[in-house]
Amino acid sequence: MxxxxxxxxxCGYWGPNLVRNIVACPQTRLVRACDVDAARLAExxxxxxxxxxxxxLAExxxxxxxxxxxxxxxxxxxxxxARECLLAGRxxxxxxxxxxxxxxxxDLVALxxxxxxxxxxDHVFCYAPVVRVMKDIIDAGSLGDVLYFDSVxxxxxxxQRDVNVIWDLAPHDLSILEYLTGRQPVAVSVQAARxxxxxxxxxAYVALDFDxxxxxxxxxxxxxxxxxxxxxxxxxxxxxxxxxxxxxxRLKVYDKGVTIQPRPDRAARxxxxxxxxxxxxxxxxxxxxxxxxxxxxxxxxxxxxxxAPLTDGASGARMLxxxxxxxxxxxxxxxxxxxxxxxx
Length: 344
Ligand SMILES: NC(=O)c1ccc[n+]([C@@H]2O[C@H](COP(=O)([O-])OP(=O)(O)OC[C@H]3O[C@@H](n4cnc5c(N)ncnc54)[C@H](O)[C@@H]3O)[C@@H](O)[C@H]2O)c1
Fold this sequence. Notes:
There is one protein chain. By secondary structure, this protein is α/β, with parallel strands linked by helices. The protein folds into two domains: 4-123 and 291-311, Rossmann fold (3-Layer(aba) Sandwich), CATH 3.40.50; 126-289 and 323-338, Dihydrodipicolinate Reductase, domain 2. It is built from nine helices and 15 strands. It has helices at residues 15-24, 38-45, 57-61, 75-87, 102-114, 129-139, 165-181, 291-305, 313-331; strands spanning 4-9, 28-34, 52-54, 68-71, 91-95, 119-122, 146-156, 187-193, 203-209, 215-221, 223-235, 239-243, 251-261, 273-282, 337-338. β4 (68-71), α4 and β5 (91-95) form a beta-alpha-beta unit. α7 packs across α9. The longest helix is centred in the C-terminal third of the chain and has 19 residues, at 313-331. The chain is globular, with a radius of gyration of 22 Å. The two termini are 41 Å apart. Nicotinamide-adenine-dinucleotide is lined by residues 9-15, 34-37, 40, 57, 72-75, 77, 81, 95-96, 122, 124.
């Protein structure tokens, strides 16, 4: 089967990673790259003389060799660009978050369905080897019942102009949460602040309620002096710690837990037996591999097999529902805001 002819639109910070991976993937062929900034584009395409450069989406869509388009422009532009590509009969891979509103996301999902085109969102961590290993551990039942997900994703910058820290960083954790647990939050509460004279929230504590005792908490901050990328997933049997900045021991599984043996008589409640289990720690092997290579391969496979990709447009729309609820919570001083269900 011939390789999927693709174009990348938006070659700022993230787009060049798509360019590199589309060039490297045997199932795809980069035909064109487009950016309104011609100088930036020339710099990015210097190592790829066979790729055509252009500054207008119309030029991309006029090229019949382009069957699919990857969009890595600012969030506010995603909907209009993706819409134009779908209307021109192209499959679309769009960066996270998929659009700026739920309505825009739903519009893209409907349009892709109507035209039998693939719409995929780059929820890149769902393709990271470490997250795949975590999923295997959870699916095998090694953690027991999964009780909570606690993530810290902080560093100094990159300050984004068009979105706040929640819209920029929470998509990573929200997509990982959906992939690992298959669950959707029913409500969200967010405490957030705008410091350093910035117009967007640059630190946030996001609490997600899943209605069955399972809780998630995301600590997101662009104003931290140190970079931390750490997630703890607590289970009834074992607990897992993922430190993405520790390549030697990225993942550790702790055989630790607590068992409470209640006393039947109320009077003796204070003496209920709490036993702490402190077994060993294992550090499962995590294969090497770039997550974005997995994104590109999955997109090409979904197009070839005429099936929905793992992180399809619907998953992009579900994420938008959570982000919109989170934004409402910020506006209402941290109030608990229900997350709208599909089609609500
Ligand atoms: N998946 C990830 O891990 C990840 C990481 C970083 C950024 N992103 C996402 O990638 C997207 C882009 O982020 P970035 O940090 O690269 O932004 P950026 O501002 O560095 O780059 C955006 C580029 O798009 C170009 N552009 C803007 N409007 C355009 C248009 N109409 N047509 C063609 N080009 C246009 C700009 O000139 C710029 O070069 C965002 O959605 C962001 O959330 C994803």
